[in-house]
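Bit of a strange request maybe. I'm writing a small parser for structure token strings and I need a real example to test against, not something I typed by hand. Could someone generate the tokens for this chain?
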Amino acid sequence: MKEALAKHSMTTYPDSAVINDCLTKAFAESNDEVYRMVSDVRFSGSTCTSIITYGRRVYCANVGDSRTILIRAAPNTTDGCTCRALSRDHKPDDPEEAKVILGSNGRIDSYRDQLGNQIGPMRVWLKNEDIPGLAMSRSFGDSMAARVGVNAIPENKEYLLTPEDKIMVLASDGVWEFLENQ
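Reply from user aminoacidic:
Good idea to test on real output. This should exercise your parser:
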């Protein structure tokens, strides 16, 4: 993924609107490239969180439940720092994300046990089939889920760094399922 994003991103850094447009185009072209791969991507995909820094500006683009946080010095707090999320997880039970899935004739539900009790997080399903069961509402690939609104359109955010900002952490859901932002 990183090679595809690097190949499709910009080489110059103009204003914010252009940077965000370039990020969106890079994600779209990278998703197209994933679809052209030899591998079967019906039930396979990837999330992504990425940043571009330009001077004191940080441009964050994400798809799925990979996340970027910013750790800031905060001497008057118990931990000596605070955290701010620069990205938002794209989950099917988020009202904005659910609207896209349901509007594309998808279904949102969790796994069910033999008695019909919910197990685990909400997932994206085809309307009348128990596939694909994707636990996020945006991703690269996952072409089966794309039939019901799952997409690789990034959510872009811009942040102006301050002297208190110390560390940015970019990680996949495999990390965030065990850690909270703070």
